[in-house]
Amino acid sequence: MKLINDREKEKRERYYLASQWELMWRKFRKHKLAITAGPVLGFLYFLVIFCEFISPYSSLTRYPKYLNAPPQRIHFFDEDKGFQLRPFVYGLKRKIDPETFRRTFTVDKSKRYPIYFFVRGEIYKLWNLFESDLHLFDTEGGPIFLFGAEKLGRDLFSRIIYASRVSLSIGLVGVSLTFVFGLILGGIAGYFGGVIDTIIMRVVDLLISIPTIPLWMALAAALPRDWPVIKTYFAITIILSIIGWTGLARVVRGKLLTLREEDFTMAAKITGASEGRIITRHLLPSFLSYLIVSLTLSIPYMILGETTLSFLGLGIQPPAVSWGTLLQDAQNVRAVAHYPWLLIPCIFVITTVLAFNFLGDGLRDAADPYK
Amino acid sequence: MRRVIQLIPLLLALSIISFVIIELPPGDYLTMRILELRQAGTEVGEAEIARLTAQYGLDKSIHTRYFMWIWNIIRYGNFGRSFQWDMPVSEVIGERIALTMVISICTLFFTWMMAIPIGIYSATHQYSSFDYVFTFLGFIGLATPNFLLALVLMWLSFTYLGISVTGLFSPEYVDAVWSWAKLWNMGQRLWVPVIVIGTAGTAGLIRVMRGCLLDELHKQYVITARAKGVSEKKLLFKYPVRMAINPLISTIGWLLPAIISGEAITAIVLNLPTTGPVLLRALMYQDMYLAGSFVLILSTLTVTGTLVSDISLAWLDPRIRYKGISE
Fold it and tell me: At B258, which CATH number?
């Protein structure tokens, strides 16, 4: 009995002694959706970091015999041999419809291609640095299309993984730009107040009142088409952050305005702390958690923005791929009706955006000391 | 009144942004046009180039062109000439802007008609199974961008119903003069874009409404009223709902830009005869007067809409109304 009491006491004491971050972590753990969203995002980003290794082919490798081939199912059971430890896919047989001249594929059960892991395949350069030809998986005998192939016979799975690298990273890069803009401008407005504050807040009001997509479209259309991929990529992130910083600047300003009046700020001033020290040492930690929440929630909007622009053909240009450029193929409803796997990138977009929203929600609840 | 005056610098800033957009692309339409003509084998003489340059005002400095543009808009309602369509911008966009407005306003009403009842239900039946269903649907709605929803809807209706939901009119009405029949025809097809554009906003509003109403329901005046024996229905609709709707009206500020922006992209996917597709094509061909005018008009409409919402909020909420007078 005493033991339980002691343990209970210890637990309570730990709660009282816990640091701010520890308390937040405890609250965050209670948010089930946020807890599941974290690993999902972690997995997606892991795929993206090692995308050359994980995808069996490059995003541009063409298999002319397999134009618009359907996704292949991974099998463990063979009709003759029963269960097998090594998974395999059946081959595809091409048929041309005599009336419509449309290619259709049927599963050819006489051909079995076993899947091997950690195999040598196409040569690539990981992060443009290390040359290698090791791939996570590939089949022997014929190509494998987990998500089917698109109209030029390129593997959709590989393309989606490569596209995720662009789309997912643009969210992070865009958010760091937003962070810098928002923090500096919001900080100036909130800390100094007066005329500067009025001007910055009016600009924020102005930018918020413009419908974003037409503005993004107009700015993105001004980018020259012949720019190299990397230049377009950064230009797009800058365009996305032009609107993005406004929300953050508002949060920062509002928080600073209230914190400026707090007693501890006054105390720091009286003891002679410099303005830079007050901002970084006393003010910033007080609303850092809000910043993190606000940033997490703005990442999905960046990703959606890029996807939308690329979908319209104004964003990332081929040969580079992003979720938006992949979805361009799905614009034609007839193509989608025949080849519904072209909509698979949608699943990635929605999953990512949902996961970021859940994560942000969990963080917000955790960061709110009054909840 | 003060709000109306504040609108003027805002509109001025918007016009400058729109003009910057017009001037932004490195090349201009004229050089492209001349190249095209030359490729087609037509000889373009120096005199012809000079005439075209003068006609489009391309020989003058940037600020002169800006003032010319603005002056023509204010004085004559002339937004410049669309190079691509070879007619005045106002003629190209007039009907399209009107249709955009119709769709946007319908969407706005749709959003509220869906969000308010669902929000009330979710708040009064907190943690019930339907509350969870609506919360889940709301999250999906927030996470799905308009164009994806449009794509999926198009695909589903094409494969399972065999109909194509693109466009706003049946083929026989596309070029017809406006009539009741055409209006009816539009009404039958309007629901697709309205649902597509409205879903995200509805999802957001449900959460706002639910949150606000939950806050109100726990306040003491509700308990007092209940203690005095006011019926639950009257209790709910007379006070807390009214209080919770106010913040909803102030959300027009972000809802309206989102709707107009969503309208643009949905219109491109669904091929609606509104602003989106024309804006995209104008940008592709660097028909910048057309594109700039679109941005200007769309943002002006948004700003005006926000102003109207602020005024109606003051009219609806006595606390704001009286504070305004006492100031």
Answer: 1.10.3720.10
How many other CB atoms are there within 10 angstroms of residue A109's CB atom?
13
Q: Which of B13, B258, B269 sits opposite A206 (nearest CB)?
A: B13
Tell whether B155 and B266 lie within a shared domain.
yes
pLDDT interval class at B174 (50, 70, 90): low
Domain count along chain B: 2
Q: Is B162 in the same domain as B221? A: yes
**What angle is formed at CA A342 by the lines to CA A69 and CA A217, rounded to 5 degrees?**
145
Q: Mean of the per-residue pLDDT values for chain A?
A: 77
Kindly state whether residues B150 and B60 are assigned to the same domain: no
Q: pLDDT class for B322, splitting at 50, 70, 90?
A: low
Instruction: Give the E-state strand segments of chain B in sequence order.
Output: 81-82, 87-88
Evaluate whether B90 touches B77 at the Cβ level (below 8 Å): yes
Q: Which of A236-245, A264-273, B1-10, B91-100 has the lowest mean pLDDT?
A: B1-10
pLDDT score, position B261: 81
DSSP collapsed to 3 states, chain A: CHHHHHHHHHHHHHHHHCCHHHHHHHHHHHCHHHHHHHHHHHHHHHHHHCHHHHCCCCCCCECHHHCCCCCCCCEEEECCCEEEEEEEEEEEEEEECCCCCCEEEEEEEEEEEEEEEEEEEEEEEECCCEEEEEEEEEECCCCCCCCCECCCCEEHHHHHHHHHHHHHHHHHHHHHHHHHHHHHHHHHHHHHCHHHHHHHHHHHHHHHHCCHHHHHHHHHHCCCCCCCHHHHHHHHHHHHHHHHHHHHHHHHHHHHHHHHCCHHHHHHHHCCCCHHHHHHHHHHHHHHHHHHHHHHHHHHHHHHHHHHHHHCCCCCCCCCCCHHHHHHHHHCHHHHHHCHHHHHHHHHHHHHHHHHHHHHHHHHHHHCCCC
pLDDT of B326:
45
Query: In chain A, which residues have their Cβ closer than 8 Å to the Cβ of B257?
Result: 208-212
DSSP B178: P
- Higher-confidence position of B257 and B83: B257
Which of A:96-155 have CB within 8 Å of B? none
B100 and B188 together in one domain: yes
- Measured CA to CA, the distance from residue B133 to residue B129 in angstroms comes to 6
* Cβ under 8 Å to B: A residues 295-314: 300, 304, 307-308, 311-314
**Shared-domain flag, residues B227 and B301:** no
Going by C-alpha positions, the residue among A369, A4, A320 that lies closest to residue A166 is: A320
pTM of the model: 0.78
pLDDT in the model for residue B171: 64
Which residues have C-beta within 8 Å of that of residue A7, sequence separation ≥ 6?
A: none
Clarify whether residues B136 and B196 are in a common domain: yes
Q: Which two tokens stand for residue A15?
A: 């709660």
- Can you tell me the mean pLDDT for B239-243? 80
- Give the ipTM: 0.74
Nearest CB neighbour to B261, from listed A212, A222, A327 = A212
pLDDT in tens, A201-245: 888 877 877 777 778 887 877 777 777 778 888 888 888 888 778
Range of the domain at B69: 1-84+285-327
Measured CA to CA, the distance from residue B202 to residue B192 in angstroms comes to: 15
User: Which of A208, A217, A330 faces B151 most closely, judged by CB atoms?
Assistant: A330
- Residue B90 covered by a domain: no
